[in-house]
Amino acid sequence: MTFELSLYQSLSNLQTVCLKQNIPFVSYRLPLDTEIITLVQHHSFPEKSDSLQDLDQKIGFIVSPFDETAEHGTYFLKPDCVFFSNEIEDSYIKKLSENNRFLSLEKLSEKNIQTTAPQEYINNVNAAKIAMTEGKFHKVVLSKVRLENLPEDFKPETFFLKLCEMYPHAFVYLFQLPGVGCWMGATPEPLLIIEDERVKTVSLAGTQIATNENIESYQWSSKEIEEQGIVTGFVENLLHSLDFQNINKTGPENYQAANLIHLKTAFEFPQSELKNRFSDLLKALHPTPSVGGLPKAEAREFILANEKHDRNYYTGFLGPVNIENKTNIFVNLRCLQLFEKQFVLYSGAGITTSSVAENEWTETDNKMMTMMNVVAP
Questions:
Q1: What pLDDT shows up at residue 78?
Q2: Where along the chain do its domains lie?
Q3: Given this model, what pLDDT does residue 258 score?
Q4: Which of 154, 159, 125, 119 is nearest to 139 (CA)?
Q5: Cα–Cα distance for residue pair 73/65, rounded to 1 Å
Q6: The domain at 5-375 falls in which architecture?
């Protein structure tokens, strides 16, 4: 499907007004879907929560960081209005344009963000390999950031539609929330999906640039197979430890998301087994070894001690909860944080003892191209 601006003018007008007036909103499109759903909360502020309890009883959109801190918390947007694709009345857009409730909110600044230097990243990878040989952890995911100037003609609304068109296999979103800022992305990794009375999650690892080859023809190195096995083992053991039954496991298989190919193993089980443990499962899964490492606590400690940048909401999770009787929560990968005249790209790679630091730097560059190919084609 072609997501041309002329076909989505009302949607773009709504997004423009929300961005200008600082009104909390999110527009998103699920993988392999054509419907764009927009949630707007114009009567009140999104809820900041220290707990995920009763999340399955709510309706809205959740955004949670990689690491909960006083500065970065979990927010839940409770929509006053829900719009599907382009079904937005001009009178509503006009009313929003006169809404001054959020105009005085202070916008976030990029002043403390610095691009990660290649040597800094390579040193972190080598330090992680030493720590692993000493038995401190089995795997860690190390990230980097890149600060870029926005093109003068950049419009988030147009960028969002381009992402929808270019990356049909990804979860594509544009959101703005007080305290979180404006983020956009096309992420490939589901964290927790509930639909058709089934609960689904995946393990995702390994990365290759997509070419025109048949999806089954991509081959993997021992390092990539090892990394995928670590993530798969974590998810499988976690589901069994929580005593979920009738788990259907498929894979690993090659999986395309955006401009990249990954190895994916899928898990699903009946929703009836979830009962009141939705929040418990979500907290137990996050952060998965695909964005943090294993064991979780030791890998997290290494990340926080060695990465100079703030991951912020990169490698956190986000997604709609109980919209159209579906919950689709994704890991926040392949994303950028938008400021007035600049933007920040985030990417990371899984490190094991067999990693080559320079290769990991190249992999993280490839992942950043998901966004860069659209910002500056």
A1: 97
A2: 5-375
A3: 65
A4: 125
A5: 6
A6: 4-Layer Sandwich (3.60)
